[in-house]
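thought: fold this chain, then report.
action: predict
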Amino acid sequence: MEQVIEITTPIADEVIDGLQVGDMVYLSGEILCGRDGVLPKIVKMAEEGRLDELNANLTGSVIFHTAVSPAGVGPTSSNKLEIEASIAPLSQAGVKLHLGKGAIHPETVQALDQYHAVYAIIPPVTALLGAKTAEQELVAFPELGMEALYRLKVDRYPAIIGAAHGRSIYDE
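observation:
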């Protein structure tokens, strides 16, 4: 049964257990933003055991596949090679929810299930998200400009669970 769920970060395993493909969620709390420029750097840091250098805790976190620019934030395609390749290792490192747009590969859907994480899609609604973003802070990799790693404080970001428990909304 599809439902509307309020989620606050950090996200507990019990929240992930209750999510189903098609559920509408509202995200509140801190989320991290990154895309193809920064996510491979974070994966490398995880592989090297250097996540403590990030100034960001990935446990129970959300990573929004976006850049932060003066125009606002909006999802980028999560199936870009560098982004989709980051989903499994970042889930293993503690990320619970990946937020973006577009279909992801079945292998990625299975990796999400394996690491007890989910993928949520968000329509490209930059103005809406800008109004629901209370604060933003540059966390790491300032040389990447708007593609650096940012931390946002958000209030009720809308999204739809796109993959959970080995199923994808795109398979329906």
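thought: worth noting. The radius of gyration is 14 Å.
final: tokens above.
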